[in-house]
Amino acid sequence: MNDLHKDFADFVRLVMGEKEANGAAIQALLEAYRLLSSNRLPAPERPMTLNYSQPWQVYEIRNTITGRLYVGRAAKGFLNRYPDGAWWFHHNEDIGQDIVIYGLQAFQVRVFQCVSSEDMCTQEYLMYVNSISRYNKNEPPTEPLANREKQGGS
């Protein structure tokens, strides 16, 4: 057995373990092995850069130690809501207490761009209801901002 076959056999055992593989799986593994061993991997896609001043953004502030999170929306953009991105100056007591206990480095902020006010409200609500432990004191509204504004709401 030449070195390529031995290396490929080791690669298959590493990926598959002791499981049996059919012809299609072996073919896919062989193609993956050839790409990996030849350094001809496709260039990674460049990630989209998010403009934090764009309207209709939903964000989550997550305590990476406890898993607890705050879900919010920024109708005028995250940086308009939190100048210089300093969200820690503007939040509730529970987040403040956890910053003291765990440190600011224990928190991760993720911002998501939405395509409309309705999309923003929907995304915020879905993120909220799909989280287990939250800092939020109130449940987000289920209807879009545009509808509430037409009805005279805030």
Word description of this protein:
- The chain has 154 residues and is an alpha+beta fold.
- The protein has 2 domains: 36 residues; 94 residues, GIY-YIG endonuclease (3-Layer(aba) Sandwich).
- Strands 2-1-3 form a 3-stranded antiparallel beta sheet, with helices on both faces.
- It is elongated.
- The termini are far apart.
Write the layout of secondary structure elements.
Blueprint: H1 3-16, H2 23-38, E1 57-63, E2 69-74, H3 78-81, H4 93-102, E3 107-113, H5 117-129, H6 145-150
Antiparallel strand pairs: 1-2, 1-3
Helix pairs in contact: 1-2
Number of separate domains: 2
- Read across the widest sheet, the strand sequence of neighbours is 2-1-3
Q: Give the amount of beta strand, in percent.
A: 5-15%
Mean pLDDT: 77
Secondary structure tally, helices: 6
Under the CATH scheme, the architecture of the largest domain is 3-Layer(aba) Sandwich
Unreliable sequence segments: none
Intertermini distance: 74 Å
Number of strands: 3
Order of helices and strands: HHEEHHEHH
**What profile does the largest beta sheet have?**
3 strands, antiparallel
Give Rg in angstroms. 24 Å
Shape verdict? elongated
Oligomer: single chain
DSSP helix fraction: 40-55%
Annotated CATH topology of the largest domain: GIY-YIG endonuclease
- CATH homologous superfamily classification of the largest domain: GIY-YIG endonuclease
Name of the level-1 CATH class of the largest domain: Alpha Beta
